[in-house]
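Before going further, it is useful to explain how the protein records used in this thesis are read. An example of such a record is reproduced below.

***
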Amino acid sequence: MKKLKLVMIGNGMAGVRTLEELLKLSNELYDITVFGAEPHTNYNRILLSPVLAGEQTFEEIVLNDLDWYLENDIKLLLNRKVVEIDRVRRRVIAEDGTVAEYDRLLIATGSSPFILPIPGNTLQGVIGYRDIADTQVMIDTAKTHKHAVVIGGGLLGLEAANGLMLRGMHVTVVHLGQWLLDRQLDKTSGQLLQNALEARGLHFRLCEQTQALHDAGNGRVGSVEFKNGDIIPADLVVMAAGIRPNIELAEQSGLPCNRGILVNDTLQTYDPRVYAIGECASHRGIAYGLVAPLFDQAKVCANHLAQLGFASYKGSVTSTKLKVTGIDLFSAGDYMGGEGTETITLTDPIGGVYKKLVIKDDVLVGACLYGDTADGGWYFRQILEHQVIGEIRDQLMFGHSFTLEQALADAGPTREVA
């Protein structure tokens, strides 16, 4: 039987995981062609921070080497940026003129860093933080320059700041919010995190807006100016203030988009031959930027590409962890709480431990942990499974092992029957 043609645009984690899942289900259905805009095979983008911090090498974060593509008969076209999707003729066209026809198309173009629209944002030394090339620029700059400014106090910004500091730079993190990780932590845990990072040598400017980047006189950034008029030195500016889904190709081809390529519960776009997955896709109004939801999407998308047609993606509850060695934090679900919810908190300022659990209608709906995250996975399962916690409510704060011991104690001694 003649194989169908599957073309994938993008060679990142979400797309390649979809291919891995597809090959498990059916390795005879498609001739597969992959276009990758970068010169590298698929690598673990999540581990760029440990590479920047000097804890891992680029080689160690490769997920699928060239042999994997060869072994699975996947035609890999690296350094080939796709510039057009022709949905009428069912083909894609790359910048160098390469054309690939498809029966099914998978768009996995990911996202790009949001570069603040301010004067000086095109100066040398102003970069985003998204790929191996950005990471290498930071490593190289740290060898020759002193002052770095990271714009954005989210996960990526803090990981970049920590890595640059470990490489010897004086680093200031600029954040618009009132506390760090304000989308992942509440104010108390955000302050604990700031204290820990300041003790390591990082500097912070919160509730601060960047107004302009100034030239050092040689075409390179030299300083950062804030809205209040303050100016601080900066030989390197890393923009980590959010991402934007890469949807231009899809939009140009006429696919409906709204903060991402619109997909249904099968990851199918409005064109039944075209699927989208990962950070470029918008599912039920959400474009996910964390890896766990993208892997959930990959399983469902592969199921439909394999023509099994029964899997369904309903969305994901996400959890957060910071990749800074020695700092433990975890949050999941509705960690802020609000109307109709109750919160249980435990605070140990001396031990640097803070725990907050959010309950609604006798169900755990959110958790925020700092300093002791051993039970994060257990709390996350409780949230996902909507477990009624009535019987263990009083012991919930003390974690899985304690509630298990208590349950066994309450059950009383067991008696063997001969």
In short: DSSP finds ten helices and 25 strands in the chain. The CA atoms of residues 173 and 243 lie 17 Å apart.
